[in-house]
Each structure stands twice: as C-alpha cells, then as structure tokens.
Design a protein that fits this description.
single chain; mainly alpha; 9 helices
C-alpha cells in the first residue's frame, strides 16, 4: 500500500476540497466497489481536477483506508454520545445499538466500504473492529465492577455484542427499504438483557 501523503490542508478551501473528495470517494466506492471505482470517477463526482486528488492523497488505497477509519470514528463518536446519558450498562447497550444502526442507516455506502475492507485492506478491517472491541471490553469490565452486569469474559462478550449489532445492521437496515430501528433495538435489547432462558 502506498505511503500516505500526509498533506493535511491548512486553508479552509483546502479542507473543504479534501472533504469533498472523501465524500465523493465514499459514494463512488460504496456504489461500484473498490476495484471498479477509479480515481477519475471520484474526481468527477467531486467536481475537481484529477491532479487535485494527488495533492491530498497518494492513491485510491489511501482514500479507502481513510474511509474505513472515518466510519470507525463516526460510529464510536455517535455511540459515545448516545451512551453518555445512560443510567447503567444495560441502558447503554440499548443506546449503543440504536446509535450503531442509525449510522448504518445514514451512511450505508461507508458500511459497505468497511465490509469490503475485509478483502481490500484486511489490516484496516481488523483495526476497525479491534479498536472498537478493546474499548467495548473496557466498558463491560467497568460495568462488572459497578455491579451493573454479571461477571464474565469481557472480550468474548464485547465481540459477541459487536457481532449482534453488525448482523442486525446488515439484515434489518441495509437489506430493508423501510427500516424500523426501534423494533430491532427493542427485541435485541431484551435478548441482550435476558438471553434465551425462559
């Protein structure tokens, strides 16, 4: 993978142009897939010159990796904002799941990019989930210490809960034309709190 250009713009115009290129890349790569999307497609969608792309990025690989990282940041930020006001861990689980499904609904192209990263950039894909998993496990450990949830292996639990959210996002948000996030969150939250025991 090429080395990043590290050309962070210093002017307002440069920041806006770079953001416009990233937004166009999200749309183009999300719709066409990494292999079929070209830099020319991206710059055309961004309404900017081909040469301008290379001021900010070394190539399509760098843009792709940044999109994966941005999705991770957006998801963690939105989840943290929603979870912050939760009374306890079980309420935080509900709020976090709702936040995640909302991000999937609002940014479906970027969700598809993260999934494609499994094959295009496996390291970015692993980093995306590993960073989330570490933070999640830490939160679960804290909840055990506060007596909000039962003791258990925080890492396994974190990855299981992430798997639930990921699969629900795909099945009930991406695959549906009419998304009922409240229904999905409500049912999943009952399962998370009570399991399958009668």
């Amino acid at each position: 993978m090429p080395m990043p250009t590290n050309a962070k713009p210093k002017t307002k115009r440069g920041i806006e142009r770079r953001a416009k290129i990233l937004a166009a890349a999200e749309q183009v790569i999300g719709e066409k897939g990494f292999s079929a999307a070209s830099i020319a497609d991206i710059t055309r969608a961004a309404e900017t010159a081909l040469g301008t792309f290379y001021i900010y990025f070394s190539g399509k690989d760098e843009v792709f990796r940044e999109l994966v990282q941005d999705m991770g940041h957006a998801t963690r930020t939105q989840a943290a904002a929603r979870v912050a006001g939760a009374a306890d861990r079980l309420e935080a689980e509900r709020a976090g799941l709702e936040a995640y499904l909302t991000v999937v609904r609002d940014r479906p192209m970027q969700y598809r990019i993260v999934e494609e990263a499994r094959f295009v950039d496996p390291e970015a894909y692993r980093d995306y989930y590993t960073e989330f998993g570490k933070a999640y496990a830490g939160q679960l450990d804290q909840a055990v210490e506060k007596g909000e949830i039962s003791p258990g292996d925080a890492e396994v639990r974190a990855w299981a809960l992430m798997g639930i959210a990921k699969t629900l996002g795909e099945r009930f948000v991406l695959w549906e034309t009419e998304v009922d996030i409240e229904r999905v969150v409500s049912e999943a939250h009952k399962f998370i709190c009570n399991g399958l025991a009668p």
